[in-house]
Design brief:
single chain; about 400 residues; alpha/beta; Helicase, Ruva Protein, domain 3; Rossmann fold; Arc Repressor Mutant, subunit A; 3 domains; 3-stranded antiparallel β-sheet; 17 helices; 8 strands; DNA-binding
DNA sequence: CTTCCACGGGAACACTGGGGTG
DNA sequence: CACCCCAGTGTTCCCGTGGAAG
């Protein structure tokens, strides 16, 4: 077969793969009419020269929050450009700009102020931004995506942002916060909370039927005709609906199923391919998370593996894990962390869904955490022992010899 | 009622990479 | 140039606390 024959084969299934990617923002957002309308109504104030209310948007991952906001933002900017109103939308992903300093530095840079990546006191950065926006009469809408990330180390950013209007003479700033955590406002100062949540919009999870609609729409563009077997879309929708109605998940499933079919040189995507895709996504997710784990977290996970191997048990107490962790650290010549710190690492691993930890009180024998692995062992092994931990693979034999 | 172990909040500290000032 | 200031991150230290077995 010619080198390019295999490439040409791809065309048999995909017509345009990009529309299945998470970054793609469709022109039409099924089942989000109401949210779009609500958002547009609030923001339309900007076109009338008023300051739109601050908005909080809630919804789980893959419920279309970001897509909706970006879509409405685009429309708004176009309209305001057409009628000569000055409104700008700044989109900030708080996962990347996750501190007060970084948010204001980014904002200041948008408004043509030079601010170093670090080094300045924050009030100077804030001042640079304030001065930058206030240069001209305009309405600036700051979108803070994943806003809950910002609140983890204090709510000062939000406080400063919400009171900035009182220090502006020409410009006006309003904030749209996007959160997938429904209760994150509880950590906020009441004043910030009420100012930020003047309007609230909720994005409910999609059900299987709605996910099907979304998939159908994209599939019509993404695939050539008749490449999807009958039950493929309903199955992707159903699987994703089980996971809190995550549309991104559904689209990933569909795309990867098709990629698998393609690689198997199949002309059609079948339900079997979807099942394989489902498994692969799960494995990749775990592998990716584990690979990027900090060194000590890896050792903690590793200690679970070794404990499990030596004891034929699933659950271990934090004490057992810490002891094993220490031994392993000594073995590879790394200074062990304190128990307190390791307990935080365990909590993080729990959050990531790699471990399952529950606090139990064992009466006379004190309080502890019972911890078990919550992913298959085989998904961990290959990826856990990176170059620094290679030597640990012979760890088990040594311990048995010393016992 | 005591006793025990580790949980987990909070303060303090060390360190990094960058500022501005004299 | 030396020196101190600043935000941010990761860590240690200290300690009050929960709650069932004994």
């Amino acid at each position: 077969m010619n080198l390019f024959d295999s490439v040409m084969l791809e065309r048999r299934i995909f017509a345009n793969k990009d529309v299945l990617r998470p970054s793609y923002i469709p022109e039409n957002l099924p089942h989000r009419k109401q949210q779009i309308k609500q958002l547009a109504e609030i923001l339309s104030a900007a076109l009338r020269g008023e300051t739109p209310s601050n908005i909080l948007i809630y919804g789980k991952t893959g419920t279309g929050k970001t897509a909706t906001v970006k879509y409405v933002a685009k429309e708004l900017e176009e309209t305001s450009h057409r009628i000569g109103a000055k409104s700008e939308i700044v989109y900030i992903n708080s996962e990347i700009f996750d501190t007060q300093y970084r948010v204001f530095a980014y904002l200041a840079r948008i408004f043509n102020r030079k601010v170093p990546v670090m080094g300045w006191p924050t009030d100077m950065v804030y001042e640079a931004f304030r001065e930058g926006v206030d240069r001209e009469r305009r309405c600036v809408i700051v979108v803070l995506d994943e806003i809950d990330r910002l609140v983890r180390n204090g709510d000062e950013v939000l406080y400063n942002l919400s009171r900035i209007n009182s220090e502006l003479s020409r410009a006006r700033v309003s904030v749209i916060g996007i959160s997938n955590d429904l209760i994150f406002t509880e950590r906020l100062d009441p004043r910030v909370k009420s100012s930020l949540g003047e309007e609230e919009i909720v994005f409910p999870p999609y059900d299987a039927k709605q996910l099907s609609d979304i998939l159908e729409e994209r599939a019509a563009v993404a695939f050539n005709e008749n490449v999807l077997a009958e039950g493929v879309i309903p199955l992707c929708a159903a699987l994703a609906a089980q996971e809190h109605g995550d549309a991104r998940r559904a689209l990933d499933l569909l795309r990867i199923s098709a990629e698998i079919a393609e690689r198997a040189s199949s002309d059609v995507v079948t339900e079997e391919h979807v099942r394989m895709a489902c498994e692969r996504i799960e494995m990749n997710k775990v592998a990716e998370v584990v690979r990027t784990l900090p060194l000590h977290s890896k050792i903690v996970l590793g200690s679970m593996l070794f404990l499990g191997r030596e004891n034929c048990r699933k659950k271990f107490t934090s004490g057992e894990i810490y002891n094993m962790y220490r031994k392993m650290c000594v073995f590879v010549g790394i200074e062990p962390l304190t128990q307190r710190r390791v307990s935080d690492l365990i909590a993080e691993l729990d959050m990531l869904g790699l471990l399952n930890a529950t606090v139990v009180s064992r009466g006379r024998y004190g309080r502890t955490k019972e911890i078990s692995l919550s992913v298959p062992e085989k998904n961990l092994r290959d990826v856990l022992f990176d170059h620094r931990l290679k030597s640990l693979e012979s760890f088990r034999i040594r311990t048995q010899m010393t016992l």
